[in-house]
Write a structure and sequence with these properties.
The protein is α+β, with helices and mostly antiparallel strands. It has helices at about 30, 40-50, 95, 100-110, 145-160, 175-180, and strands spanning about 15-20, 35-40, 60-70, 85-90, 120-130, 135-140, 170, 190.
Length: about 190
């Protein structure tokens, strides 16, 4: 894209919605999901980012999700159902050293349309704070669109600055949903 995402450089973005999930097992999952706000300018994005808690400061069981307006951050949403996710699993010790930077870079990839002509395939991203290790995932619309999915995965891995040795996998939501232990096998890797 070549443009800068510094405030003032790009007046309008696609509209994005920030969601927050606090896992309260006494409530239905859907009831734990809250829409925080929507942004459609770079200034709004930076204002929002400056006012929310850093991901590394969230308690275990919480998620942030940034999705295109109109798409809910769940498999069941019609725009996600046929899609999947590039999943970056982090070691526990990375929460304090790298997590916030990786999440910010993920957000900038989304709002900056870093995936060029395939940016339309991106639905959103989720960061999940978990005791066993945090996860960041970029969700796409169509798992069978291998050309777009691979392009997104390669660009994403490069933007995160992950080493060539680090492998990130792509899982179709349908496969993940069918597994009780959420260890769906990777459809693609980069």
């Amino acid at each position: 894209m070549g443009g800068s995402l510094l405030p003032g450089h790009l007046p309008h973005l696609a509209r994005w919605a920030l969601w927050f999930l606090k896992n309260d097992r006494s409530r239905a999952w859907r009831d734990n999901l809250q829409l925080v706000t929507k942004v459609d300018t770079v200034e709004d994005f930076w204002a929002l980012y400056g006012h929310i808690k850093l991901a590394s400061k969230l308690s275990s069981g919480c998620d942030y999700a940034l999705f295109k307006d109109g798409i809910e951050p769940m498999w069941e949403d019609s725009r996600n159902r046929r899609g999947g996710r590039w999943l970056v699993s982090l070691a526990k010790q990375q929460r304090h050293s790298e997590l916030d930077q990786l999440w910010l870079e993920t957000l900038l990839c989304l709002i900056g349309e870093s995936f060029e002509e395939h940016s339309g395939e991106v639905c959103g991203a989720v960061i999940s704070i978990r005791a066993k290790g945090d996860k960041i995932a970029v969700w796409t619309r169509e798992a069978e669109n291998q050309v777009a999915v691979l392009h997104i995965g390669r660009v994403y891995k490069e933007r995160l600055g992950l080493s060539a040795k680090t492998v990130i996998g792509y899982q179709a939501h349908a496969d993940t949903a069918a597994k009780s232990n959420s260890l769906a096998k990777n459809k693609l890797v980069v």
